[in-house]
Amino acid sequence: MALKSGGLERQSKASHEIPSSSMADIAFLLLIFFMVSTVFQTDKNRNIEWAQAEATEKIDEKQKNILNIWVESNGDVYISDALRPLDQVSAIIAPLYRGNRELVISIRSDRTVPYRFVDAVQQELVAAGVVRVVFATELERNITREIR
């Protein structure tokens, strides 16, 4: 009687374990991918003359809970670096504030901005139901810069 395939039997068994030798490599590649592709939102830097204050309070909120509203001397209002009409501020802010009650609105303007524009923004925020509003000053800006 002749032996098939030279007398050696081939046993092929499928492994029931997931190979984990390259899991660390995949994890590091994903980590690098997300680090490279993440975009951090930063406000455009504006050259303004900040208002002066004798005292200020540091905002102890996460950056995602602070919404900056810039008021220009010609009455232009920028919300998150996008030009918005002054009469639509409450319509834009109200849904944001309803979705996040920890939201702090920071009004930032040059000291030469006529008060009627700042007051109009405040009235729009009152109409939107916003409770937490702060005014950015030179002193607060210096404190924030020192912390970072």
Structure description:
This protein is α/β, with parallel strands linked by helices and 148 residues long. It has a domain at 63-147: Nucleotidyltransferase, domain 5 (2-Layer Sandwich). Helices cover 34% and strands 14% of the residues. It contains 4 helices and 5 strands; from the N terminus they run H-E-E-E-H-E-H-E-H. The protein has helices at 23-37, 89-99, 115-128, 138-147, and strands at residues 66-71, 77-79, 82-84, 104-109, 133-135. A 5-stranded mixed beta sheet has the order 3-2-1-4-5, with helices on one face. Strand 4 (104-109), helix 3 (115-128) and strand 5 (133-135) form a beta-alpha-beta unit. The model has no long low-confidence stretch (mean pLDDT 78).
Summarize the structure.
The chain is built from 4 helices and 5 strands; from the N terminus they run αβββαβαβα.
Q: What is the helix tally?
A: 4
Helix content: 25-40%
Structural class, from secondary structure content?
alpha/beta
Radius of gyration: 29 Å
Tell me what portion of residues adopts beta-strand conformation. Answer: 5-15%
Average per-residue pLDDT, rounded, comes to 78
Do you know the CATH architecture of the domain at 63-147? 2-Layer Sandwich
**CATH topology of the domain at 63-147, anyone?**
Nucleotidyltransferase, domain 5
**Main β sheet profile:** 5 strands, mixed
Strands of the biggest beta sheet: in what spatial order? 3-2-1-4-5
Number of E-type strands: 5
What series of H and E elements makes up the topology?
HEEEHEHEH
Low-confidence stretches: none
Main CATH class of the domain at 63-147: Alpha Beta
Query: Distance N terminus to C terminus?
Result: 85 Å
What coarse outline follows from CA principal-axis ratios?
A: elongated
